[in-house]
Design a protein that fits this description.
The chain is an alpha+beta fold and about 55 residues long. It has one domain: Signal recognition particle alu RNA binding heterodimer, srp9/1 (2-Layer Sandwich). It is built from one helix and four strands. Strands 1-4-3-2 form a four-stranded mixed beta sheet. The protein is elongated. The termini are far apart. The model has no long low-confidence stretch (mean pLDDT about 95).
Length: about 55
């Protein structure tokens, strides 16, 4: 029987949202995150030493 590989972390997590402006407001105002990239279709936030949260 094969064993599952050991996970060292999650590089990216992508969330699809209905309203990007409202989602950005939540993650920035409530959660205190600062976008490392944003345009009219996505926002990217660093959320740990080697992880990124992507909002689409």
């Amino acid at each position: 029987m094969d064993t599952a590989p050991v996970l060292n972390g999650v590089l990216e997590t992508g969330l699809y949202v209905d309203d990007l402006a409202k989602a950005r407001a939540f993650y920035e105002d409530v959660m205190g995150l600062q976008a490392m990239f944003m345009d009219n279709r996505l926002a990217a936030y660093p959320v740990g030493p080697n992880s990124v949260l992507l909002l689409f």
